[in-house]
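To the team - manganese (II) ion complex, inputs and output below.
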Amino acid sequence: PGGNDLEDHQEFNIFIIYTKENYQLQKKFELFTKSLLKFSTVDKLHLHIISDRKSEVSAEKILKEQIEHYRKSVYFTFYDVHKSSEKIKDIVQAMMPFFSSNPGSYYSDALFYLSLGLHRIADPQMNRAILIDCDIVFRTDVRLLFDEFKHFSTDNIFGLAPELTPVYRHILYRYRANYPNTSFGSPYFYVTTPGRKHLKHKQHVRHGYPGLNSGIVMLDLKRIRESKLFQESLKEEYVQQIANKYMFKGHLGDQDFYTLLGYEFPSLIFRLDCVWNRQLCTWWKDHGYSDVFDAYFHCEGNIRIYHGNCNTRVPE
Ligand code: UDP
Ligand code: MN
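Output:
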């Protein structure tokens, strides 16, 4: 199959983290690989797998089986998770106190911050990549996801979809109490009831900013390397300052940081539509947020990618 000239200059790099494999993770990786290959029309798909020795063996086996089955040409490269973690030590050190649930176990934590230092792990010549969780299932051609890069404005360096639970409403509880008019931590669509004397007026539909989910992270690596603002923001002093400002103590690693960065510098992040990362986890519905959960969980349109987060099964 001969792609066109334009496409020869495009890069289709997918990064995926596959470590500490077990039966459950194998099944996720298999579903990810199957669904990726089934729909893909990309000639030069390049998978970059960050892995450990034992997991690498299992990943290679699954990949080879599926490549043979779907008869697609896919390049793949393995990266050692320990070497990769070494390259982002300073970032992990800065972030861990604010965005890890029990800081201490370095390597198990570094995993969840790799996306923030991927520009150091990837080849310096690599211009763009997409980091994808193992618990992702494609319902469409991955080429269309890469096409979303075309919608980046010149300031956008990352692309992420919204978080579809009230987790940031929860974490920002104190901040929201101090700033009752804030839309940070509110669902994307929500209705406000005006003050008593305006009761006869219509309710207003407002846009909130629920936070971001890092199951899919689009990275313009060239711009990331060149962004002084972003490079400064990774430093300990800045991370401390921003976490204090929002009285923020999270546990979701990189996505906590992207969420705060998105509050402070919205132009750095392209808002990928929820259909590209349709999360399925409903944990917060049963943990104190049943009244507002649905407003967060709402996602309209044809689902392109399912994200079976918190071990949720993806519909057949
Ligand atoms: N991961 C891994 N080994 C682990 C745990 C996580 O390789 O033991 C990787 C895997 O790519 C996974 C990602 O880290 O998709 C994020 O974890 P997960 O998807 O389970 O988190 P959730 O989306 O449920 O918050
Ligand atoms: Mn996930």
